[in-house]
Description:
alpha/beta; seven-stranded antiparallel β-sheet; 25 strands
Amino acid sequence: MCGIIGILGKADVAPMLLTTLKRLEYRGxxxxxxxxxxxxxxxxxxxxxxxxxxxxxxxxxxxxxxxxIGHTRWATHGAPTEANAHPHRAGKVAVVHNGIIxxxxxxxxxxxxxxxxxxxxxxxxxxxxxxxxxxxxxQSPAQAVASTLARLEGAFALAFLFDGEDDLMIGARRGSPLxxxxxEGEMYLGSDAMALAPVTSRxxxxxxxxxxxxxxxxxxxxxxxxxxxxxxxxxxNVDAMQVDKGNHRHFMTKEIFEQxxxxxLALSHYLSPDHSQIHVPGGAPDFTRFDRLVLVACxxxxxxxxxxxxxxxxMARIPVEIDVASEFRYRAPPIGRRDMVIVxxxxxxxxxxxxxxxYVKGKAGQVVAIINAxxxxxxxxxxLALPIKAGVEVSVASSKAFTCQLTVFAALAILAxxxxxxxxxxxxxxxxxxxxxxxxxxxxxxxxxPQMAAAARELAKARDILFLGRGxxxxxxxxxxxxxxxxxxxxxxxxxxxxxxxGPIALIDERVPxxxxxxxxxxxxxxxxxxQEVMARGGKVLLVSDAKGIARAGKGTWAxxxxxxxxxxxxxxxxxxxxxxxxxxTATEKGTDVDQPRNLAKSVTVE
Length: 607
Ligand code: G6P
């Protein structure tokens, strides 16, 4: 899983390869590389680590030339070493690859038996060797790529350059996205339109199975059967500016603190101007057409679905099934016309979520996507794409996208309740009024940051941490644990408070902090009982509640974090703040790489 870029330019391409790769770093950042054609012959620079390492390598040994391909990697086959970094070369061929070649092992053995020697442990290198072999047998570069594609299984986006061919670049996609960018006498390939934004907004998206032969002034696209096809050129409106951190030390805090304002933006998108009705620009889904909702996503977006299940079921009385996309797609569940499927993705490129969308298309009555990246594959392929309006999210761990996903879900749940007769006009208005308070309450919650930082100083010493929550706060416990794990590398688990006694309680001792998300709601006393069970066994409880909750149950806890009082409906949105900031401060306390934690990627484009 990786980001790929290709440029047939009019000037030196190395600096632009770096600029565009920087915008693909969300796809992986464990190593990177470029190949540039210099005086007719290809030269490579590769480096382990983030793009800065490649930048240094290019400073130390610059590359000149107007044609090049580049890659930023998230290792799948082979450790993140320089030898495994892309581009991979074989003879006259250089290739960059995003995806997984599933049959690379038999292909590699076949090539080894024929005398080929491999320089890396990657699946990708076999592609370069297959193309080189075909060219050695007399095929043109285009024929060699076509015959190679026919032998590959798995998912890929590929870009090729050829020694001695300064005006030729070939791209191909199956399962992983790839877009052509059009310039004035220049041609580009990129994993997405956002990467290409600094050079062009004129984009042609390749479709599944397509491959393309590019020169500076021409493109010939073929479909999977080898027929020449034309695909539309579209103008995309993506921000070419590289977002910065403002006054923040990390993108993560910038994005956490942006939540009140981006949430207000998301709300204004989905509310009528007088705040009396939910209004979905572009056409509201009709929830009366469906007997069931199926919500599918990965990671943090999945936890947003988990909260939404409570909202839809309680408010709109519609059954909801939720699943992580990687399970959903392979368990092949029955889906019918009376099901609405909602896929949720910040990036709109997560491979498992995209595959889940492909699975339900044509089966479900409607496929709705809740997405941040409006030019993404998921946004383009869904029947209806609903933007979350969070703005670019750079930090690998999701924060503002989560609260904006929740905002869209909250609006949809109110809409569904209204359409299905569970809320009357006054009820709809009353629920909206609660939502409208959320940005202000998020602001208040953020003011507790110093207390969260103080608690994090203790949390940073722990080896294991538990998070507890009930009802719609249970998914927040899961999200809190996920955030803490990914940012601070401390083992953490989230549990439904009532489930603790069925096993996890065995873990409790004075070294295991237990963080309880417990706003005063209908289930508060039950959560407090579970908290007491922890304290009775020497457990160290951090109670996250409102003033009333702390007054009622704070006694005997190790620490308390006061959140603003809020209606139970919106509590999951407000409690996202401590879930995020506790993880953030624990991580900074430990000195980990907050914005780009080890082994992770912002958008996981392999399954
Ligand atoms: C990765 C990210 C997570 C994110 C998940 C789903 O694992 O590190 O922060 O929640 O992918 O991403 P998506 O773009 O589909 O929301």
